[in-house]
Each structure stands twice: as structure tokens, then as C-alpha cells.
Prior knowledge:
Elements: E1 9-15, H1 23-32, E2 40-46, E3 55-61, H2 64-67, H3 70-75, E4 80-86, E5 101-105, E6 108-118, H4 121-130, H5 140-152, H6 158-166, E7 171-178, E8 183-187, E9 196-200, E10 203-207, H7 211-214, E11 219-223, E12 229-233, E13 236-240, E14 250-251, H8 253-258, E15 264-265, E16 268-269, H9 270-284, E17 291-294, H10 300-310, E18 318-320, H11 333-343, E19 344-346, H12 348-351, E20 355-360, H13 367-378, E21 383-388, H14 416-423, E22 427-430, H15 436-440, E23 445-446, H16 448-451
Parallel strand pairs: 14-23, 17-20, 20-21, 21-22
Antiparallel strand pairs: 1-4, 1-10, 2-3, 2-4, 5-6, 6-7, 7-8, 8-12, 9-10, 9-11, 12-13, 15-16, 18-19
Amino acid sequence: xxxxxxEECGVFGIYDPLGGAVAEKLYLGLLALQHRGQESAGIxxxxxxxxxxxxxxxxxxxxxxxxxxxxxxxxxxxxIGVAHVRYSxxxxxxxxxxxxIAMNYIKGTLSLVHxxxxxxxKEIKKEQMYRGQAHYTTTDSEVLSYEIVSExxxxxxxxxxxxxxxxxxxxxxxxLVMSPRKLVGFRDPFGIKPLCLGxxxxxxxLASESAAFGVLxxxxxxxxxxxxxxxxxxxxxxxxTSLCHEKQAHCVFEYIYFARTDSIIxxxxxxxxxxxxxxxxxxxNPVDADLVGGVPDSGLAAAEGYAAGSGIPFALIFHKxxxxxxxxxxxxxxxxxAAVYSKLSVLKSVVEGKRIVLIDDSIVRGTTMARIIxxxxxxxxxxVHVRISSPPFLYPCYYGTDxxxxxQLIASHHSDEExxxxxxxxxxxYLALEDLKEMTGDLPLCAACFDAGYPVL
Length: 457
């Protein structure tokens, strides 16, 4: 929907030291991460038992199931691989910007996948151009790839090249780099972007979310520490924590909206976090009503929490058609609006004559919420009270989330009462900034889109 935020990407990597093929597992893992990016998908693999440097990459525009057929997966022969789903926040949505980024250089080959945003990419690119590199890079992922290649020509290992490149980066990022014999994963020192380690028998996995492990029957071992570099080889795992520091700032929106509800990120169960947000919202913003309902899918867990905290019954008030296309990339406002109505329909028998508490995770521009409230009133709802399980969006994000400029954020230049009138609600309330700790406990958060407290610029 056009009134939702979108994550930039999802990354997934596998190393099977016993030589088993990983392409199908990478495909299944990408399906589990599809919510993080729906514009393009790609897979790179290498056979560690074959000729050195034999990396094979397949990628294209569209959903994972649209890009990869059984025939294409059979072409991806290898026991080590990285995979990617993309939603663009830097660089155009074109085939050339799909990942993985595969590169040949004087010492060999590598393939990189990246989630997040490097805020000093322009400065790094200027240095690369001065050195005669990277004249045609358009994304920060390409800038990062060139920087690792540059360092690799001067260092004895890919992991050392990654470490040296990482010391130059500012921003929020989680990256996987595959050489013909190794899989390296690293995360920004603040832990803004998630990355976790899993295991399936002797096979190791790295992913943006633990939900990608569950589909394979793998177990979550732990989260990659902020600033940590993990190297996986035939001999096992090596950890480099030389870039770790005490200050952390994990993206709050992973818990509010981005992550799948069955994921565990940095020790926090996402579903439980959303339930707790709903309870906190009910405690601070009560209302007399007959039913509590959530906007599918992201508002449902918070709605259950609100119902539990308020004592008002929870009900499913919408049917969602999961087979409709991606409305947020429809080219015109009219087409996006039509897609919203196609995706959601109101259960009239549930809402007719009822006072509804409607829960959603956020209001960005207000357009979609206004349409949904109109749908509820047409179906006979007597009152619609909107409760949002995040604070108001006031500031842009620089770390790979497409929070637009402040002049496009309705809360940055309208009062709560003005927004209420704009969307047509009977009342409106947001989660209080101080209640974020109710959701994630003592986990240090980046909430800069709410309070301008940017951990790094």
C-alpha cells in the first residue's frame, strides 16, 4: 500500500561443508524474506569442490517465484551461496541494480548482497574515482563491493578486506560476501540492521531474519553481534569482534512492522513485542467500543494486544486477498487506490452497527487509512477509533528505510486533531514514545524517525 514504509532488502546465505547443493534452500529462504523486498531477487552460488572462481549468478526483476523456475535453480550448482530480495531506496528499480553484485578482480571473484544504507557512500565513491575505480556505480551496494575488492588486492584474505572496508562505512547495514571458498557476514556497529546465524546439521546459514531458518527446519543459533564479522569456511566459524562497541541502536521498525511475526530479532520475539505494544496503547489510550480489529497483516498482533489490555473483544474485520499484485509500486495514485480496495474487503456482518477500534502500525501520508475508514463506514460501522502502535513519524530515515522527507509525513505538519479529521476517524491516538520500552524491554533502539536521535550521520 502507498501509505506503508518499505524495508530495503533481505539477505540470506548458506555454507554446506559437506558439498550439498544449496540453491533450493536459498530459494526457500528468499520466499520467507519476500516481505522485505519485492522488486527484484537474485542468487549466487559457488562449488567449493570445483574450479576456483566458478561463481554462478542468476537474478531478475519481480518476486522470487517469478525470477526462479525449477530449470534456473538446476543451473545454480554449488554448496555455498548468497541470495537477495530488494526494495530500492537508493538507486533505480531496474535490472542493473538487482543483487547479488558479482565481481571479477585480479585475485579472484566475489558476490555481495546488502541490506541497508551507507550514508557516506558518496564520499567513498569520490575516493574510489580518485583512485580510478567505480566511475559508474549508482548504488551504495556497488560502492561497497568496489571498496572490498580494492582492499582485497592489498590483503591476504577476504575477511580482512571486509574488515578494512567496514572501518570506512557509516550507516545501517547487514552484508554477506561470498568468495569461491568462504562466506562472510558483517553488520553495522550499532546493529541498526538485523542479521542472524542459523544451523541445519553441519550447514551454517546467515539471514536478515530467523523466519528464513524455520522454513528449512534449521535452528537459530544467535544474532550476529553489532559490528561483528563472521567468516564461515570448511573448517567452521571464525568471529572477529574488533569493530564492536558498546553503543547500540536497533531499528525500532523491525518490531513494529518490517519483520515477520514469527521472527526473533536480537533476542526479542517480534509477535510478543507487537502484543505488548498493543497493550501499552490500550492502557494509555482507552476508548468505549464494541470490537477491536487490525489492518492486515501488520496491525493484527497489536490489535490482539489492545483487545487483551482493554477487555474489548478482538475480531477479524477484513478479508485480505493475498494474490493481488504489489500496490506500492503501481505507477499512479488511481491504480494504487484501486489496488487497496482490491486487497481488502470489510466483513460487513462483523462491523455493521459496531463501534470499532481500528489498529494499524503507522500512518505515513494518511491516504490509505482514510480509504480504509471510508470502507468501514460504508459497511455500517457506527464509529471508527484509530489507534496506531507506533509514535507519529516526524523525521526521515537515512539507514535504508523509505521514510520520505518530512514534508511528505502527515504528522510533521499536522496536529493529531487535523489528522483525525483528514482520515475521517472518530478519535486518533498513537503509541507514546516512552512506551517503546514496553515493546522491546531494555534493547537499545534507533527511533530517529520519531525523535531525530540519529545514532550516526
